[in-house]
Amino acid sequence: MHATLLGVLGLALLGALHAQDSIPVQTDFQQDKLTGRWYSIGLASNSNWFKEKKHLMKMCTTDISATADGNLQVTSTYPKGDQCEKKNSLYTKTEQPGRFSYTSPRWGSNHDIYVVETDYKEYALVATHITKSTGSYTMVLLYSRTKSLSPERLERFSQFSKEQGLMDEEILILPQT
């Protein structure tokens, strides 16, 4: 019984590690070109909070700046009711350019963040693997330098989200604010 449980846990861990390894990172990632203002155009996730709040979500702005030690300061401003709320996050660089980590002080969740692809001028596709005590989740974000993107970019976002195991009902193009 003990050996079976350990075997199942081992397979689960290997599956989680494999899922992280299967997320690609932008070739020749250039962190300085990622800085500046972005708009959140699309969001996809299999987390419970996303499913519960999906109908309330709207486009937000995200400002990315580099810190002196090479990390990223990420400030998202999003509408909440009739006000705007800000969330600050420090994405810590890893040994792999284009990959960052973040631990949420509020929720205690660990985030592995991957800049999957970007042209730096128009769009960025970012995937996050989130681990917390209640399980692990996937989140995919589509950022744009403007409030709209081509249908081809939107389709690429949907396609990549599905490649990460997300379903149509877990993929959202955010309404403009």
UniProtKB/TrEMBL annotation:
It is an enzyme of class 5 (isomerase). Residues 1-19 form the signal peptide. Residues 35-177 form the Lipocalin/cytosolic fatty-acid binding domain. One of its GO terms (molecular function) is small molecule binding. InterPro entries: Calycin, Lipocalin, Lipocalin_CS, Lipocln_cytosolic_FA-bd_dom. GO terms for cellular component: extracellular space; Golgi apparatus; nuclear membrane; perinuclear region of cytoplasm; rough endoplasmic reticulum. This is Prostaglandin-H2 D-isomerase. It comes from Nyctibius grandis (Great potoo).
